[in-house]
Structures are given as C-alpha cells and as structure tokens.
Specification:
About 40% of the residues lie in helices and about 15% in strands. The protein is an alpha/beta fold and about 260 residues long. It has one domain: Aldolase class I (TIM Barrel, Alpha-Beta Barrel), CATH 3.20.20. It has an eight-stranded parallel barrel, surrounded by seven helices. A two-stranded antiparallel sheet has the order 2-3. The radius of gyration is 17 Å and the shape is globular. About 45% of the residues are buried. The structure holds ligand LARABZUK. The ligand O=C(O)c1ccccc1NCC(=O)[C@H](O)[C@H](O)COP(=O)(O)O binds next to strand 10 and helix 11.
C-alpha cells in the first residue's frame, strides 16, 4: 500500500532529522523567525464577492504520475500563482515520491505574500515545528494516515503553535475522525491514496454529512470550470489543484478562468 510505504519512509527520514537537529534546537530558531503564520480561514472561505477560492499546488512529481514537470522552478511557479489570484499555495515538501523539499517553503515565503500550506505526510510534532520554522501558514493532516487520538493531538498542537490545519478525508470514517478533532477546514480528496482511483462524485456523498460552518476544500483531479461550478453549487469553498496547473501552457489564463467560473 503506497500510503503506508510513504509514511514508513517519512518516519525513517524523521528519525534522522531529529538526531541532526533536536527539537529544542529547531524550536530555538523560532525566536528569530520573521514569519508569523497568517489566519488562512479568511483566505479560504467562499464569499459572494469571491466565491471560488483556489489552493494552487507546486508539484514536481507524484506516486501516481511520476515526474509531472521536468523544468521545475518552485519559486517562479509560486510567484505566478500569487500574481494571478491564488488564495493559498500548497508546497509539497515530501522528497522521495513527490520530489519536494522543505527549503521550497522558505524560498517561496521570502518572496511571495500568499499563505502557504506545508503538504506532506505529517505524523509527528517535530514536522509541525519544521512547518513553522520553514514558513508555512497551515499544514495538512491526513485522517487515513492517523488514529483519531494521533489526529487530535497533532491538530491541537498545530493550533497551539499558531498553524491552521487542513484535515483531509476520503470516506465516512475519516470524516468522523475529522469531526472528533474539531477540524474547521476539511479537505475531501477525490483520490484514493492507496489505489490512486479517482471518485469525482465523492463531494456529493460527503458534503451533506459535514456540519455547517466548516470550510470545505475539494482536492485532486480538478481540471475544468464545470467541476468547479458543480462542486461550488453543493458547498465547496476552495479547490486544491496541482497537476492540472503544472501541465497547462498558461497558469495565468487557467487561474483567471477558474477564479471567474461563477459570476
Ligand atoms: O498525487 C498523487 O499521486 C498522490 C499519491 C499518494 C498520496 C498523495 C498523492 N497526492 C497528494 C494530493 O493530495 C494532491 O497532490 C493534491 O490534492 C492535488 O491533486 P492534483 O490536482 O490531482 O494534482
């Protein structure tokens, strides 16, 4: 199972990083951290004036597609997203399967004003402190990868250090975990992270089960305005889009089209 494999590798790497830079040392660098996390909820909540919110992803590769973008310049991509109306930017930091890097967060945070998501497989408080130190505003927690207790502990720790959390779900059990931890931002991932199968009808099943007042993010496989219009009409606030933006000839044109899907 690919998700288990990624988590296993993540834990191995983590043990090494914890020896290289122990948590207290990592935490100490926060006293000189120039980047306070922004409150991302206001950036991701759909409003009458700006109904479609976009989290645009900086994504070089993935387990399902291999290398997606050969000539990959994370800063240039993030600058283009920011200049053309992305409400947040998702930065993949997992190195083995997505060819990401934690340093991308810092590079982008230095020059780009848009809020940043650390998109990784977070299983430990150490990674949350890293997210803060490297310049993220919010993190991803994948319900499928964590027990209810782990999810709640990591969620509360993230909020405690000032980071918001996107809690990702794929089925009813995940949703139940997300609600138990009190998630405010719920991401519905159309992609099954073990089989890579896409279920573009998943929001239709899960959104009606989510209590009012939550910010809902539709994740993966979004590549046209019809999907954005349809999912917005049933309650999606925001859309997390990676591969599609990596492959289009003009990010500017595509972002503009998606942002104006509802008028
Ligand atoms: O993208 C994958 O192949 C993948 C495989 C296993 C675990 C996670 C995976 N992707 C992470 C994501 O959730 C997506 O990068 C994100 O939702 C954007 O999806 P897309 O627009 O389809 O690139």
């Amino acid at each position: 199972m690919i998700l288990d494999e990624i988590i296993e590798k993540t834990k191995e790497d983590l043990e090494r990083r914890k020896v290289e830079i122990p948590l207290d040392l990592l935490g100490r660098s926060l006293s000189s951290n120039p980047y306070a996390p922004r409150d991302v909820k206001k950036y991701l909540t759909s409003t009458k004036d700006e109904p479609v919110r976009i989290i645009a992803e900086v994504k070089k590769a993935s387990p399902s597609k291999g290398i997606i973008k050969e000539d990959f310049d994370p800063l240039a991509i993030a600058q283009e997203y920011s200049a053309n109306g992305a409400n947040a930017i998702s930065v993949l930091t997992e190195p083995h399967y997505f060819k990401g890097d934690l340093e991308y967060l810092t590079q982008i945070r230095r020059y780009v004003p848009t809020p940043l998501l650390r998109k990784d497989f977070i299983v430990d408080k150490y990674q949350i402190v890293e997210a803060l130190v490297y310049g993220a505003d919010f993190i991803l927690l994948i319900a499928k990868a964590l027990s209810t207790k782990e999810l709640k502990e990591l969620y509360e720790y993230a909020l405690y250090v000032g980071l918001e959390v996107l809690v990702e779900i794929h089925d009813k059990e995940d949703l139940s975990k997300a609600m138990k931890c009190g998630a405010n931002i719920v991401g519905i991932n159309h992609r099954n992270l073990d089989t890579f199968e896409m279920d573009m009808q998943l929001c239709d099943k899960l959104i009606p089960m989510i209590p009012n007042g939550k910010i809902i993010v539709a994740e993966s496989g979004v590549s046209n305005t019809e999907t954005i219009k349809r999912l917005s009409s049933i309650g999606a606030d925001a859309f997390l889009i990676g591969e599609h933006f990596m492959r289009v000839p003009s990010i500017k044109d595509e972002l503009e089209t998606f942002k104006n899907a509802i008028k």
